[in-house]
Design goal:
alpha/beta; 2-enoyl-CoA Hydratase, Chain A, domain 1; 8 strands
Length: 312
């Protein structure tokens, strides 16, 4: 980063010298500046990706242990089985009963294998839907903690209807007559994130990322070069700042200096503060109004207006 700063300073010096000598090299210098800025942008985006994937980053259960007074995990989808990659249960936040659903990654090889790297199977999404509908029935708000590369793309998952399970969640979560707050705490990857990512409020931790595909996948498919993943990360606009500017998320939750992995407890407390603040507002709203505004927000994603005023 300091190297880029030095290059830009030298470019400014060259511009000054060229102006004094009456030489026009502005076009060449602009190309250099653009290249440097592009490199800097790629480095910043990739740094976020690496922080989002840090194995010491707080996982869903770590966050739950801080934000909840008590928590009881529930299991099973009542169709096939239980999915340890997607956990859920009932907790109390400052005495308020809530249903919490989240992707759970592991910290080491044994845990990662047991949790399937946080990549849920169909039964995980069906469990999430069962708990969400239960929350709606009993008037409990739903909190989702998103941290996954995506849904599991295995043969068994396809056979058991992973696409249908995610699609069903998208539809049903959009219609839940209870407050839904979604927080991306690490990676928010593709349909795996969307399956529990439809809510009244969607937040991202400062160093979280949210995208339709991984930078490596984007680079391999569209750039035809997997080594361009760092450049792809900047092109994809996947950081919290990018998503906030596009109004995909409602806000960014700051992390301790250096990243959430350096102080997981403080990061979790900041998440709790946002949840408590929003629950005080959302729980006082008419459920039908929540659903209406939730759907209006969803329909605005990707919407743009082309300015044709100069067209002849």
């Amino acid at each position: 980063m300091n190297g880029n700063k030095n290059v830009l300073e030298r470019v400014e010096e060259l511009q000054k010298l060229a102006s004094e000598a009456g030489i026009d090299i502005s076009e060449e210098l602009k190309k250099i500046s653009d290249k440097v800025e592009e490199s800097s942008s790629s480095a910043k985006a990739w740094q976020r990706v690496e922080l989002a994937r840090n194995p010491d980053r707080p996982r869903a259960l770590d966050v739950i242990s801080v934000i909840c007074d008590e928590f009881v995990e529930l299991h099973g989808d009542r169709y096939y089985g239980d999915d340890p990659a997607l956990i859920g249960g009932i907790g109390f936040i400052n005495g308020i009963p809530v249903t919490i659903i989240g992707n759970q990654k592991g910290r080491n090889l044994k845990e990662t294998l047991a949790r399937n790297g946080g990549m849920a199977n169909p039964e995980g999404y069906r469990k999430a839907l069962r708990l969400a509908k239960q929350a709606e029935k009993f008037g409990r708000p739903v909190i989702t903690l998103i941290d996954t590369q995506g849904a599991y793309p295995g043969l068994g998952a396809e056979e058991r209807g992973i696409g249908e399970a995610i699609a069903m969640n998208l539809r049903e979560f959009s219609q839940l007559k209870t407050p839904v707050i979604c927080i991306i705490i690490g990676e928010g990857g593709s349909g795996g994130a969307l399956g529990i990512g439809v809510g009244d409020k969607v937040y991202m931790l400062e160093n979280a990322v949210y995208s339709v595909i991984s930078p490596e996948g984007y680079a391999s498919i569209l750039l035809r070069d997997s080594s361009q993943a760092k450049h792809a990360a900047a092109m994809m606009k996947i950081t919290s700042g990018d998503l906030l500017s596009m109004k995909i998320c409602n806000g960014v939750i700051s992390e301790p200096a250096g990243g959430a992995h350096l102080d997981p407890a403080e990061s979790s407390r900041r998440i709790k503060d946002v949840i408590v603040r929003d629950l005080a507002d959302l729980m006082n709203r008419n459920p039908a109004v929540l659903v209406r505004y939730r759907n209006q927000k969803i329909r605005k994603f990707g919407h743009f207006v082309e300015d044709c005023s100069d067209a002849t």
